[in-house]
C-alpha cells in the first residue's frame, strides 16, 4: 500500500504540468505572505504620486506604475492577498454548504433528496457568472459581498458532485456491511462514504479555486469588487482601459497574474485527479 502511494507521488512529481501548477501556487502563496517584505514600495500601494504616473517598466519600478503613480509590482503582491482570501473563503464556504447537502441527499433519497436537488438545479439553471453579478450588484461593491456572491452561486456544484458519488457508493458491499453491523447513518456517511469520495471533492475544489479567482476578477473588472484604491487585479485591468495601448504594461501585468494563478490551479487539479482517482492509478499500475 505504502509502495503504491510512493509510486503515485513519484508519478505526480514527474508530471511537469502538475509540478508547474504547484510551483505557480507556491509562488502565489509566498507573494501573499511576504508581500510587505518583497514589495519595493509597500507603503505606497494606495497613495497618489502624480510625478510617477504611468511610468513604463524600469530599474526602479520593475513592472511600471499605474494611473496613481503606485508601483505595479507592489500592488500585484498585495493583490495576491486579496485573491487568496476570496478564493479560500468563497470555495471553503461552498464546500461546507454543498458537501453536507449532497451527502445527506445522496444517502437518504426520497422527497427530501429531491427537494434539495431541485433547489440546486435552480441555481445551476442560471449561468454562474450572471447570478454572481446580480447578487454582487444588489449587495454593493466590496470584497465581502464578492465572497458572499461566489459562495451562494458555487455550493450547488459540490452538492451535485457529492450527491452523485454518494448514490454510486450507497449500495456497495462495505456500506451494507457497516449498516448490518449497526452503524448509524451519521457514522456511515462520515467514516465510510466521505473518505471514499474525498478525492473527487479535492480535485473539484482545486479546479473550483481557479474558476473562483477568474470570476472574482470579472466582478472586479465590472466595478463590483473591492472599491478603489484596493489593489484588486480585476479592478486594475478595468482602470487600465483608458490608457491603452500606450500604457500597455498597466493591463498586461495583472492580466498575466490572473492567467498564471488560474492555470496553476487547473494544472494542479489535473495532477491531483490522476493521482487520487483509483481507476486512473490502477490503469497506470499503481496499486
UniProtKB/TrEMBL annotation:
Its main location: membrane. Gene3D superfamilies: MetI-like. GO terms for biological process: peptide transport; protein transport; transmembrane transport. The chain crosses the membrane at residues 20-39, 82-110, 122-140, 146-163, 207-227, 247-269. It comes from Reyranella soli. This is Cytochrome c550. It is a multi-pass membrane protein. Residues 80-269 form the ABC transmembrane type-1 domain.
Amino acid at each position: 500500500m505504502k509502495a503504491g502511494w510512493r509510486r503515485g507521488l513519484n508519478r505526480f512529481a514527474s508530471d511537469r504540468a502538475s509540478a508547474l501548477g504547484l510551483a505557480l501556487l507556491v509562488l502565489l502563496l509566498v507573494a501573499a505572505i511576504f508581500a510587505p517584505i518583497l514589495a519595493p514600495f509597500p507603503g505606497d500601494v494606495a497613495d497618489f504620486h502624480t510625478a510617477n504616473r504611468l511610468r513604463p517598466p524600469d530599474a526602479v519600478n520593475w513592472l511600471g506604475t499605474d494611473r496613481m503613480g503606485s508601483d505595479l509590482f507592489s500592488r500585484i503582491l498585495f493583490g495576491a492577498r486579496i485573491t487568496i482570501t476570496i478564493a479560500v473563503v468563497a470555495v471553503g464556504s461552498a464546500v461546507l454548504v454543498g458537501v453536507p447537502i449532497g451527502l445527506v441527499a445522496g444517502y437518504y433519497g426520497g422527497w427530501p433528496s429531491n427537494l434539495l436537488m431541485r433547489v440546486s438545479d435552480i441555481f445551476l439553471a442560471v449561468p454562474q457568472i450572471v447570478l454572481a453579478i446580480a447578487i454582487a450588484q444588489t449587495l454593493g461593491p466590496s470584497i465581502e459581498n464578492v465572497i458572499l456572491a461566489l459562495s451562494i452561486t458555487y455550493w450547488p456544484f459540490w452538492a451535485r458532485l457529492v450527491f452523485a458519488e454518494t448514490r454510486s457508493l450507497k449500495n456497495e458491499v462495505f456500506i451494507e456491511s457497516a449498516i448490518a453491523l449497526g452503524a448509524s447513518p451519521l457514522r456511515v456517511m462520515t467514516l465510510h462514504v466521505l473518505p471514499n469520495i474525498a478525492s473527487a471533492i479535492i480535485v473539484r475544489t482545486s479546479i473550483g479555486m481557479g474558476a473562483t479567482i477568474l470570476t472574482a476578477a470579472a466582478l472586479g473588472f465590472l466595478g463590483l469588487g473591492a472599491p478603489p484604491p484596493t489593489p484588486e487585479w480585476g479592478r486594475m485591468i478595468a482602470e487600465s482601459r483608458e490608457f491603452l495601448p500606450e500604457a500597455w504594461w498597466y493591463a498586461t501585468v495583472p492580466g498575466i497574474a490572473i492567467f498564471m494563478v488560474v492555470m496553476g490551479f487547473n494544472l494542479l487539479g489535473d495532477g491531483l485527479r490522476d493521482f487520487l482517482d483509483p481507476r486512473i492509478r490502477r490503469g497506470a499500475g499503481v496499486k
